[in-house]
Amino acid sequence: MKGRHVLGLSAAFVTLAFTVAVAATGSHGDAQAARAQAPRLNILILETDDQTVAEMEVLPNVRRLIGDEGVTFDNNFDSFSLCCPSRASLLTGQYSHNNGVRGNAAPEGGYYKLDSTNTLAVWLQKAGYYTIHLGKYLNGYGTRDPREIPPGWSDWHGSVDPTTYRYYNYTLNENGELHTFCATAQASCYQTDVYRDKANGFIRARSAQGPWFMWVAFLADHSGGPREPGDPAGFATPVPAPRHKDKLKGTPLPQPPSFNEADVSDKPQAIQRRALMNQRQIAAVQENWQQRRETLMAVDEAVASIVETLRSTGQLDNTLILFTSDNGFFHGEHRVRTGKVLLYEPSIRVPLLMRWTGNKSLPRGVHRKQLSMNVDYAETILGAAGETARPERIEDGVNLLRFWRDGGLELGRDLLVDNTPGAGHFDAIRSRNFLYAEYATGERELYDLERDPYELTSQHMNPAYDAIKASLAARLHRLVTCAGGTCRTKPAVRLSVLRSGCSIRAVVTGSGTQSVGFWINGRHVRTDSRRPFRVTVSRRGIVSVRARVALSADRLVTADRRVQSCR
After folding, report:
1. In whole angstroms, what is the distance from residue 17 CA to residue 559 CA?
2. Percentage of the chain with pLDDT > 90?
3. Predicted pLDDT at 432
4. Residues in contact with 43: Cβ distance below 8 Å, sequence separation at least 6, in sequence order
């Protein structure tokens, strides 16, 4: 994107024009900053399983040690709310229709569906990183050859399916040797604690040994064995560490307006067929909700221990820490007693917190409202690692360090959410304030999330929403086959900056523009809601101009320009 000199609105002004490109780039623009701050940055992913954003309540150490020291992304989503597709997106930076993993098992998905020769681990290893995996990998891993080590991993400690889903009596493939832990359940080898201790050991061993990348994939708070007394009949629950069992006993189950939703006549038949929950079923949901939160308490302790090990070995400032979950989960919302996969907020909204205290250009303790997604993680990590780490796929995501650094930046993109192909398949688009979905059955859903955050009333049949529905549908139809830049398509707006002496005039044009906020040198100076959208100011020296452009159909994009005014 280039500025160009032309004659402007009057002969007295010189015009500098800046057009927001139709396709944003998955830039590695942070590489220079990364090299300046920490040339060989360590990278640590800490991932839970099936954790909701609401469950961050029982993770105070994660909030304090990562979010409060870095950034929390408040609008972070999972492109495919299921374990294997989500993890494949983390490893590739791609939506499922581009990486090919569209389910947990064959023929649509599973470990063997992913091209493991072309993943984030491979790219980082080629860039000189020592790569470590600990814990759960992609569903189905180890079912053909439990000693297999996927390409790209220098140090492999992957849990072997189906033992992955046991909090005791689980097997790890440790660099080609199978080790089973806790064949007889005992507190000393509770799975989360073993992963904690192993992660600490790897960090100590790699101190002063060059850059490393480690992905610690906890099972918590996914359901898993063994069954315990008090588990609700016919209901899969996790297993809290003995020290945390019943810590939350008696804590009331949250019941938002969507809980056991009374009227689901606006929703697809698959939801309408779900009966209202009875008291016994609600009690089972309550017990699962309690156990899941108690299971996360060991993760919170593990994170605190890992951060302390980084600190004590002098590696904390030079480590990018990313904490997230693969997908969300239901606890009775919309009559869904358990599970994920569906497109509603409890299922697709996931936590994302990051810390990188060694990079002084990144603010600490901030929250960001921009849309983000798991397809962005790989691009963010590569951007932080520097120019030597390059993707060998066409990335669908963006570098989130840009949002972290600049809370006002808006790229104007939408997000794609989908599920496994078949009779229950849907494609959905998530914009800033709307969710629109089209089902293989022909059914539709449309939620105005600003007015209806609990998704109680679909507006797909409401004529008042016809215009926004049509726009969202058109954008969705482009997203379902997008690749790379076309997954980041933004509305075309034009910011022209005109100067005459010390006077600066900024003008925005673009189809569908409804209002423009103008910032000069980081300060808001005007919001214009009528054409022509413009502002005139007097400034000296180099002047930074930002236009925050709100367009029809729930689109928001920023355009920026720096110009030399009078001296």
Report:
1. 11
2. 89
3. 97
4. 124, 129, 211, 212, 213, 214, 319, 320, 322, 381, 384, 385
